[in-house]
Amino acid sequence: MLPVLLFIVGLILLIKGGDWFVDGAVGIAHRFNMPEILIGATVVSIGTTLPEVMVSAGSAVKGIGSMAYGNALGSIICNTALIAAITIAVKPSDVDRKSMKTPVIFFTLAALVYVFISYFTGSFSRISGILLLILFVVYMIIAVKQALSITKNPKAQTSDNEVEDNDNKEESKKESSVLKFLVLLVVGAALIAVGADLLVDNGTIIAERLGVPSTVIALTFVALGTSLPELVTAITSLIKGSGALSLGNIIGANMFNLVLVSGLSISLAPFDVPCDKLIGGINSSLVIDIPVMILVSCILIIPALIRGKMARIQGILMLAIYAAFCIFQFVI
């Protein structure tokens, strides 16, 4: 029971740590008058992906490449076929196709790199990890430039001036708030690090004792646990009637899972494509995991780019696929 309890504690620390980290980062950014759209494009997206970063990087360094690999793929599948699917099934929303283009393009490029390596080389080398990290850096540069160009309009400048006036009136309050947000940032990061360590270590122990491959644990329980920040964002957005915000966060998080999470893990400790199961003599990851990731991503993205809005049937279809995916992992 101890590994199970520690696994749950790790999940709780990841959730709370991710929540505090994002709150602290956004609070500091606001206090220094950074544009909100810039915060969303950088700090929040990276913050909600930090649990995956810590779990996958820690797994790779400890020689558990299957956990890092499974967490990256599993988080994308979970983000798309569970979290985004729930949002769409409950309340479909319109989509700003223009704002989707950049993250979709980079996600597609990263997915192509991932698919090529998985099917044609079978081994993630340090060079491939560095290539994914380069894609991450290029995306961040483009995202920041786009965000800054948007804030050059008069409305944004007026809003910034109003914030600045309010801050000048409450200088002492501002200083105390900055200290509070710094504490949240540091404590949040520490909780994420400890939680990720507990999750990886005890997830591996549980998998070994149950005879379940570590890749399966990573694709399901660990992926769901590290995707909880996105789930919280989705539910909050749904309650506030901003379903499109949730969709943008999911697409951005999925892209970060490939270029940042996988890129960092591979660069730290290269690993081969895990092979815990065979289907017809072929690695089940190549037959099920990667095709499902591509399928649910296409169901989410393509109709949105073509029609400019989501449909309830998309969410229902993805939920059905996710249920079948989870059943397959534990039954077959």
Provide an overview of this structure.
- This protein is mainly alpha-helical and 332 residues long.
- It has a single domain, classed as NCX, central ion-binding region (A middle domain of Talin 1).
- The protein is built from 12 helices and 4 strands; from the N terminus they run H-H-H-H-E-H-H-H-H-H-H-E-E-E-H-H.
- It has helices at residues 2-31, 36-61, 65-90, 97-120, 126-150, 154-169, 171-210, 214-226, 228-239, 243-268, 284-307, 312-331; strands spanning 123-124, 271-272, 278-279, 282-283.
- Strand 3 and strand 4 (282-283) form a beta hairpin.
- Helix 3 (65-90) packs antiparallel against helix 10 and helix 11 runs antiparallel to helix 12.
- The protein is globular, with a radius of gyration of 20 Å.
- The model has no long low-confidence stretch (mean pLDDT 77).
Secondary-structure map:
Blueprint: H1 2-31, H2 36-61, H3 65-90, H4 97-120, E1 123-124, H5 126-150, H6 154-169, H7 171-210, H8 214-226, H9 228-239, H10 243-268, E2 271-272, E3 278-279, E4 282-283, H11 284-307, H12 312-331
Antiparallel strand pairs: 1-2, 3-4
Helix pairs in contact: 1-2, 1-7, 2-3, 2-5, 2-7, 2-10, 3-8, 3-9, 3-10, 3-11, 3-12, 4-5, 4-10, 4-11, 5-10, 7-8, 9-10, 11-12
Key words describing this protein structure:
332 residues; mainly alpha; two-stranded antiparallel ribbon; 12 helices; 4 strands; 2% strand
